[in-house]
Description:
By secondary structure, the protein is an alpha+beta fold. It has a domain at 9-118: CATH 3.90.470.10. The protein is built from four helices and seven strands. The strands form three sheets. The chain has a three-stranded antiparallel β-sheet with strand order 2-4-3. β6 and β7 form a beta hairpin. The radius of gyration is 30 Å and the shape is elongated. 17% of the residues are buried. One of its GO terms (molecular function) is rRNA binding. Its main location: plastid.
Amino acid sequence: MVIKENKTEVYALGQHISMSVHKARRVIDQIRGRSYEETLMILELMPYRACYSIFKVVYSAAANASSLLGSNEADLVISKAEVNEGTTMKRLKLRARGRSSRIKKPTCHIMIVMKDISISEYEETFWFKPEKFFERDSMQELKKTKGKNRYKTREEHDMYKNGGAWDKK
Length: 169
């Protein structure tokens, strides 16, 4: 038996958003770990400017989840939300008497990871075809050999039939 890891998470990334990292983190901390529908309501009602940019990234992550995983919006949960610092644009502002001062315009990168809670994370698969063994009445398998006896029957070992290794005295 082989355990296969299913893909349950998708993400969306908004890069170079002209906003301070602190202002975006103030909103991101409110939505981390919440469901998708609850997040949309929170972002629409909060009075911060960062909400619109984060709303667009959350909406994009939900669209990625529905197209890649085929998941329903009611099953989505924000599992991870990060705001990282981007590049800082440096601009000059002209001042009095022929001088200039430098203005820093910070940017940030917003990453939203959504998880579908309806999909199980791991799936058990068999490395052999189980229907081949479970359909037969007796646990006999044909074994190919060279020579006169082309087909020999071999009885499979069934540990539940004879009691296993712990049944011995």
